[in-house]
């Protein structure tokens, strides 16, 4: 005679019966084993989708909007934590959705634990079917019957975000701190409440307290980072976001912030690591591409300045590839290389301009500047005049042609062009004056 089911088992059976599930794992054996175990636990096979790559899993989540996602930490083409964001987007009802991360080592497990409130539970390989069953059942029951700690936090969240009562919320979050051995999440929400009250010093202390319980607690790190950015404490903000990017998947918005802060704080050595993170992002918006290219160029300039030309050229090459024909970026690379007296290297980037853009100002001016550096001055005079005759007005063209005029002893022509340049671009007057013959 079968043993009667406990109340918890009955609750679990009710929950799992009609839930849509996506199991994402690159290993055929692991994927099949997880699916079989879920079926044995009461899940319906017709509601289950198996995925062997990140792309397949992402598409399955978008199509089926699953209640439960079980995925490996690393899955072909991406990371499990990226799928978490996808699931939350497609199924925002956190009370009825579950995210289970399968980890392969203690470091991955620590990251899973740090994503508290987002990752509902994790499994450390190798695991037994019983461990899987107990882990998922515990996570489900925590949704259905939250602990006193989570009940108190949820009450505080309602007071803070729904009722707009930060003082009441703070009292509840302070109570929650006493209900768990590692109350990082309570400290995060306490920090959020203090921020709403504009008590920023208290908020920073709360986030730091949360991190004292879990040094990579995701929500506390993000809360602290955003607050420091708002206060324009860029060096401290960079220290925080650098840690976030080390442990958690990069998203376009955060990566753009990391790159900006790395440049602002002179952390040039870190740029190449962020570039590697960029190459792993599928959806790259225009802003992120521009930030990455700008960061690579700025980093290249830094290495040129410090006589590390080979390393600088590698970064310019990456920027040129990433630019994908964006003319402003290519022009910046060419200008930088010419300033470093590397015209042969600069010339290579002319070939990266799309043919459709080779009649436009950026290409024609760059071509003129490059050939002025490698061709006889008399040839450059003719080339520059032809571009001017096309009605192209550009400060670099004016300065470059003036230099060529001076090289061929056409001082009056140079003076006239430089005077015209000062009229057209008064903010660059000093640059034009520095080239005038009487200044030499």
Known CATH architecture of the domain at 7-145: 3-Layer(aba) Sandwich
Helix content: 55-70%
**Helix count?**
23
Strand content: 5-15%
Radius of gyration: 30 Å
CATH superfamily of the domain at 7-145: Response regulator
Succession of helices and strands:
HEHEHEEEHEHEHHHHHHHHHHHHHHHHHH
Q: Unreliable segments (pLDDT under 50, ≥5 consecutive)?
A: none
Number-wise, the strands total 7
3D architecture notes:
The protein has 440 residues and is of the alpha/beta class. Among the domains are: 7-145, Response regulator (Rossmann fold); 147-249, Serine Threonine Protein Phosphatase 5, Tetratricopeptide repeat. The protein contains 23 helices and 7 strands. It has helices at residues 7-16, 28-40, 54-64, 80-90, 106-114, 129-144, 148-162, 166-177, 184-196, 200-213, 218-230, 234-247, 252-264, 271-279, 286-305, 309-323, 327-339, 343-348, 361-374, 377-389, 395-407, 411-424, 429-433; strands spanning 21-24, 48-51, 68-72, 74-75, 78-79, 98-103, 121-124. The chain has a 5-stranded parallel β-sheet, sandwiched between helices. It has a two-stranded antiparallel sheet with strand order 4-5. Strand 1, helix 2 and strand 2 form a beta-alpha-beta unit. Helix 9 runs parallel beside helix 11 (218-230) and helix 11 (218-230) runs antiparallel to helix 12 (234-247). The longest helix is centred in the C-terminal third of the chain and has 20 residues, at 286-305. The chain is elongated. The chain starts with 6 loop residues before the first helix and ends in a 7-residue tail after the last helix. The mean pLDDT is 91.
